[in-house]
Write a structure and sequence with these properties.
By secondary structure, the chain is α/β, with parallel strands linked by helices. The chain contains 8 helices and 7 strands. Strand 5 and strand 6 form a beta hairpin.
């Protein structure tokens, strides 16, 4: 069983059931979609599998995802929903998440779309239809992202068209908007390192004003691990640190 980091073990509020129907007004102004993959197919696991082997990479990627989720659940003014992939493993992923976080009924939805842009836009639009006037999508490959950055994204959407949290690799760890529009993600070359630049160009073309959050490092490859190691040495990320310290497979 995955060990939950001490700093989040009991401070994370248990999520109660929500009405996912089209009627009604959510209690929080913002809805946040956390994109979560099955452990062995998550983005971090996929990027590290060749270097580390599938088992270690899957455990590490899942721990990264749990850390991001724990921080998201501490946000003020935001309801968190887990958008899972693959859809046929939703029940399994639900069980693993609820083992760690307790009650979380009614907050799991399947990712829909053939490209990352389609999946992000679907999640944003789904949150809008559910009644949230601020919609955000957050990935799980920036495990040490400061909670204050995520809270700033929620808060700044109160009077901005949107926010983007850029990564050093040219992508982004978060995007939040108030009016979903599939054109925001049109012709974006995912995985190219140009995602931020191309998305920003689409936003400008639509006349939308977005605010930029501070940059942060995501785990794109083994080359990103030294930065992460420096972060986890100065915080209580015990499980993540233990996996980083495992000896290389022969």
């Amino acid at each position: 069983m995955l060990e939950f980091p001490h700093e989040f073990a009991r401070s994370t509020p248990a999520a109660g059931p929500l009405n996912l129907g089209l009627a009604g007004t959510p209690a929080a102004p913002a809805g946040l979609a956390l994109f979560l993959s099955a452990p062995e197919s998550g983005p971090v696991a996929a990027r590290l599998s060749a270097a580390w082997g599938p088992d270690r990479a899957a455990r590490f990627g899942w721990e990264c995802a749990l850390l991001v989720m724990a921080k998201a659940l501490r946000l003020k003014g935001a309801d968190v929903f887990v958008f899972v992939t693959p859809a046929e493993r939703q029940a399994e992923i639900e069980s693993q998440v609820m083992t760690r976080f307790g009650r979380f009924e009614g907050r799991f939805l399947a990712q829909r779309g053939n490209t990352p842009g389609e999946r992000v836009n679907h999640a944003l639009e789904r949150l809008r239809v559910m009644g949230y006037d601020r919609q955000l999508v957050l990935g799980t490959d920036s495990p040490t992202i400061p909670l204050e950055y995520l809270q700033r994204a929620v808060d700044e959407l109160a009077d901005a068209d949107g926010v983007i949290g850029p990564t050093w690799a040219g992508g982004y760890y978060l995007i939040g908007i108030r009016r979903p529009d599939v054109r925001i993600f049109r012709d974006v070359r995912w995985g190219s390192g140009l995602e931020l630049e191309q998305t920003w160009g689409n936003l400008a073309g639509l006349g939308l004003t977005f605010r930029m959050l501070p940059r942060w490092q995501n785990v794109d490859s083994e080359d990103d691990l030294p930065f992460l190691e420096g972060q986890v040495r100065h915080a209580d990320y015990r499980r993540l640190r233990a996996i980083l310290d495992e000896p290389a497979a022969p």
